């Protein structure tokens, strides 16, 4: 008796198919393009929802920034009215390391943010600029690089 062997096509699961591929090209790309530990000069965070919920999400970020090892200030430029001294205290922020600044006269929040970044006395300057044009963003990046600081813009919606 003669057995006829017909090859059967087996289908690999997605996981097995992925694992069957060689990993060398992936590792090579990772080694050639290492992650940069240098922080970006500008970041933006967009929060939508109830004001209380947005502040609850923002609290741990600001708390972490207020505890930075850098001896410079965490500066908040023209924060929303709901971000009060009492809120800062209740959120557990280190208020001895925070400056709250409001623009005066004809000065805009954008101009004050750029000035605070350029001076370099703050490790991070947080602003609430909305809308933020491309040219305004470029001004913030340039000022942050000049002052060796970080700009964080919060958009509440």
Low-confidence stretches: 23-33
When the domains are counted, the total is 1
Structural class: alpha/beta
Return the CATH class: Alpha Beta
Q: Return the CATH topology.
A: Rossmann fold
Arrangement of strands in the largest sheet: 1-5-4-2-3
Rg for CA atoms: 25 Å
Q: What's the end-to-end separation, in Å?
A: 78 Å
E-strand count = 5
Level-2 CATH architecture: 3-Layer(aba) Sandwich
**Can you tell me the CATH superfamily?**
P-loop containing nucleotide triphosphate hydrolases
Which overall shape is indicated by the principal axes computed on the Cα atoms? globular
Note down, in words, how this protein is organized:
By secondary structure, the protein is of the alpha/beta class. The protein has a single domain, classed as Rossmann fold (3-Layer(aba) Sandwich), CATH 3.40.50.300. Helices cover 39% and strands 18% of the residues. The protein has six helices and five strands; from the N terminus they run ααβαβαβαβαβ. The protein has helices spanning 14-20, 24-32, 51-66, 85-90, 109-119, 134-146, and strands spanning 42-47, 73-77, 98-101, 122-127, 150-156. The protein has a five-stranded parallel beta sheet, with helices on both faces. α4 links the parallel β2 and β3 (98-101). It is globular and about 35 Å long. Mean pLDDT is 84; it is low at 23-33. Keywords: Transferase. This is CDP-glycerol--UDP-pyrophosphoryl-N-acetylglucosaminyl-N-acetylmannosamine glycerophosphotransferase. Pfam families: SulA. One of its GO terms (molecular function) is transferase activity.
């Amino acid at each position: 008796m003669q057995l006829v062997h017909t090859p059967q096509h087996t289908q690999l699961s997605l996981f097995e198919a992925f694992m069957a591929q060689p990993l060398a090209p992936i590792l090579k790309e990772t080694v050639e393009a290492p992650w940069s530990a240098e922080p970006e000069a500008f970041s933006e965070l967009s929060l939508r929802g109830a004001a209380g919920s947005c502040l609850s999400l923002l609290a741990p970020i600001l708390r972490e920034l207020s505890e930075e090892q850098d001896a410079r200030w965490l500066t908040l430029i023209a924060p929303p009215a709901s971000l009060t001294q009492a809120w800062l205290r209740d959120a557990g922020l280190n208020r001895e390391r925070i400056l709250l600044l409001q623009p005066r006269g004809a000065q805009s929040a954008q101009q004050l943010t750029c000035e605070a970044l350029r001076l370099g006395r703050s490790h991070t300057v947080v602003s609430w600029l909305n809308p933020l044009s491309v040219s305004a963003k470029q001004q913030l990046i340039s000022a942050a690089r000049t002052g060796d600081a970080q700009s964080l813009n919060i958009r509440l919606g």
